[in-house]
Every structure is written in structure tokens, then in C-alpha cells.
Amino acid sequence: MTKSGDKLVSRDGHSLPLARRKAVLGADALEITPVPPVTGAYSYDPGYASTASCTSRITFVDGEGGVLLYRGYAADDLARHSNFAEVSWLLLNGELPSHTELQSFSEELAGLRHCAPEVLDTIAAVPAGAHPMSTMTAALSAMPAVYPECTDPDDADHRRRFSHRVIANIATVAAAAYRKTIGKPAIAPRKDLGYAANLLYMMFGEEPNPVASRALDTLLVLHADHEQNCSTSTVRIAGSSGVNPFSALAAGCIALWGPAHGGANEAVIQMLEEIGATENIGEYVARAKDPGDSFRLMGFGHRVYKNFDPRATIICGICHEVLQELKTGRGRLFTLARQLEEIALSDSYFKDRRLYPNVDFYSGIIYRALGLPATMFTPMFAVGRTVGWAAHWCEMHTDPEARIGRPRQLYLGPTARSYLPVGER
Ligand code: ACO
């Protein structure tokens, strides 16, 4: 970490030197902690778009270059050549596993797939009609009571046990949440199948086509982490209070659910269904551009990626493969999505604002082809992202600089006033 003399110059000409934290890749950060005591003012940064909330060694995103690195390895390279178990180890431990490490980690995860009966009881007790994201959150909330040996943020063994337990169990929870939506009992996991194949097996009760398993595995890899996004920042801020990790992840799960974040994959399919045919695309693009209409092209735009989302490029390729292999008759939506992408990308509104398809634009079409209903798209994202959430939670709890997350505000409410009892107002 080197520091040099960046300065903040106040209106009256006084300058305040700001220490610069040097990044290994990407933008450096200026330390603004001394600013409020000297200037009497906070930094104002809605959506934290200009704020580095922590240091991290896990994932690097370069939005201009379309680069996504997990522990220094390109995520698209890992998506093509690695698998979810290996990427999980990498994200948690910082290095690729040896052959023996990978084997024993995969075996350990397979051995931990069964959820405690209390967790399955919690899923059964969730009201019929609950969205599976609600069910998954409820299941995570039950876990600290049944896995107390995984709850102490300050104990390295607890942190390791928690990470492995939650990565193994979250797929079982997602599958049971799905079975609940169709009024069917959970299917017990199988140890002999890979992570993604077992997840599909627990949902549908039959061994999946290897192309389907491979496609899901790739999606899980591509969703595994994305630095300080909304849900990961939520996990960090909830976890910063010292709460147990299952509850911190439950908070992250809720943040992921929203349509501006992980819920976009479900919204994309709803939008494509609503558009219905090529001749209607123009009308929807016009609505997306109309400042008086709240409609947005779902699966388009990203806070960080401004040229392309590297995950979207791979996912578009998998779409081709899966639709061809599984011959599900879902090609209509894919064709419509390609046409919508082409029309939007040639429109100056989207070009000027640098809005491109994001990770969610094509993932829903793949999930559809695998037989998943739209309500299960975000839960699949949550299964993949669980690894990232766990890695960030662990990293935060070994960071000597980490403090409870407690932002300030720019207060615009009433000044102090006297209370009058109701009869005197
Ligand atoms: N359709 C139409 N216009 C859009 C879209 C869109 N999808 N996204 C952004 N814009 C416009 C905005 O209206 C704004 O226009 P203006 O400058 O004329 O006011 C401009 O582009 C900048 O948009 P912001 O909302 O300021 O961008 P921000 O970084 O805050 O939001 C977000 C990013 C939330 C992803 C946004 O692009 C969006 O809502 N996209 C659709 C939802 C979606 O796909 N979310 C998934 C994101 S990926 C993920 O979380 C996994």
C-alpha cells in the first residue's frame, strides 16, 4: 500500500491532503475519513457508485474492458474449462486446488448435501404460494439454530465449516423450494452426481442430460461472484454487525431478489413473453426510451459494464448449444431476444448510454430450456452467488480494517420543533 499527496481543495483555497490507496488493478481509492472532521461535510454518493467500501482480493471487474477475474483468473476461461466445485475452492481459498484438494473438497461437499430435518421442516412450513426466494431465505434463517458449529465469525474453523455447509446445502434448499411450489416432497440428494447434475436431479427426479448439467454448471460459475454488488454488499453490511453468517446470507438473498439485481432474469422472460412477436419490439423499445414511462428493457444496462458484459457473451453461446441439444421448442424466445438486442444496440438511446445486454438477458432462456419455471431463475442465481457471499463474509472477518457498516446521511427533514399534545394542535 503506497500513499501520496492527492489533495482536496476547499472553496476558500485550503487544501487537505488525502492518502491514496494503490489498487493492484483498476482505480485507486482516496481515503476520505479525514474529510468530515476538517470540512464539516460528508461525501455524498447515492448508490455508492463512487465509493470503495472495503479492500478485497477476491474478484476484479473492469467495466470498460469487459473483464471479470476471480482471484486473477478470467471468469470466462474458468466457465469454459473449470467447474463450480473448483471455482468455489478458488474463491474461498485464493488459489486453484491441487488434484487431491479438489477431490476431497468435492467429496466433502457431496457428503454435506443432506439438509438437517429442521431445515426441510422450515421449507415445508412456508405458506403455499411463497416465492422460492422467500423459502430459501426462511431456510437460511433456520440454519444457525441447527448448525451452531458454523456460526462464530471469529473462529476460522467455524468460517470454513460454514462455507462448505452453505455451498452444499443451498442447492438442496433451492430444489426443495421448487418442489414445494409444485406441491411435491423434496428429493434426497445423490452423492454420485456432480453439483449441477445433482441440483437438477433433486428438482426433477431424473438424471439430467449432460448438456443440461454442463450448462447449469457454467451458469453457476459465471454467477459465483461479482465484487461489491448489491447483494454482496448487503451480506457484508449485515455481517459487519457480527451476526451469524447464515443470517447475513439471508439478507443477501433478499437483496438479490429485486428486479434491478438478480430478479432481472425472471423479468426478462416476462418481458419477452409480453413482447410476443418481432413486430412489437419497436413499441417496447420506444417505451424503454420514454422518460415518462417506468418500463425498462430488462436484462439491459449495468452499473459497471459499459461496453459489454463478458458473462452475457458466454451465456448467449450456451443458449445456442442448449436449445439445439434439448430441442425444447424454446427457440422462439431466443430469436426474439436476439432481434431485440440487435434493434436496441443500433439505437442511439442505448448506444449513448452504453446499455448492453447483461448476465441476465439470456440466462432465463437457458433456465427455461432446462425446464425451470421463471420463479426458479433467481434461486439458481442465488445458488451460484452463495459462494461469493461466503467468500466475502470470510474475507471481511479476517480484515483488520473492517468496521460495522454505518453510513451517514444528508439530512433534509424538519428542524427541531416542539411537540404539542393532540388536543392543542
Ligand atoms: N432500459 C432503458 N433505459 C435504461 C436501462 C434499461 N434497461 N438501464 C438504464 N437506462 C437509462 C436510465 O433511464 C438512465 O437514463 P437517463 O440518463 O436519460 O436518465 C441511464 O440509462 C443510466 O441509468 P441508471 O439507472 O442511472 O443506471 P444504474 O447504474 O443506476 O442502474 C441497472 C443499473 C439497475 C442495472 C439499470 O441499467 C437497470 O435497471 N437495468 C434493467 C434491470 C436489469 O437488467 N438488472 C440486472 C443488472 S445485472 C445484475 O444485477 C445481476
Q: What this model shows, in words?
A:
- The protein is built from 18 helices and 7 strands.
- It is mainly alpha-helical.
- The chain has 2 domains: 2-52, Rubrerythrin, domain 2; 75-396, Citrate Synthase, domain 1 (Orthogonal Bundle).
- Strands 5-6-7 form a 3-stranded antiparallel sheet. The chain has a two-stranded antiparallel ribbon with strand order 1-2.
- Helix 4 packs across helix 7 (156-181) and helix 8 crosses helix 9.
- It is globular and about 70 Å long.
- The model has no long low-confidence stretch (mean pLDDT 93).
- The protein binds acetyl coenzyme *A.
- Acetyl coenzyme *A (ACO) is lined by residues 47, 260-262, 264, 288, 296-303, 353, 355, 358-360.
- Acetyl coenzyme *A is lined by residues 47, 260-262, 264, 288, 296-303, 353, 355, 358-360.
Per-chain topology:
Elements: E1 6-9, E2 15-18, E3 20-21, E4 29-30, H1 35-39, E5 59-62, E6 67-70, E7 73-74, H2 75-81, H3 84-93, H4 99-111, H5 117-125, H6 132-146, H7 156-181, H8 195-204, H9 210-223, H10 230-239, H11 245-257, H12 264-275, H13 281-289, H14 310-326, H15 331-345, H16 348-352, H17 359-369, H18 377-396
Bound molecules: acetyl coenzyme *A.
Radius of gyration: 23 Å
Counted by DSSP, the helix tally is 18
Query: How many β-strands, per DSSP?
Result: 7
Could you please say which CATH topology of the largest domain applies here? Answer: Citrate Synthase, domain 1
CATH superfamily of the largest domain: Citrate Synthase, domain 1
Q: Uncertain regions: pLDDT < 50 for 5+ in a row?
A: none
Indicate the percent of residues in helices: 40-55%
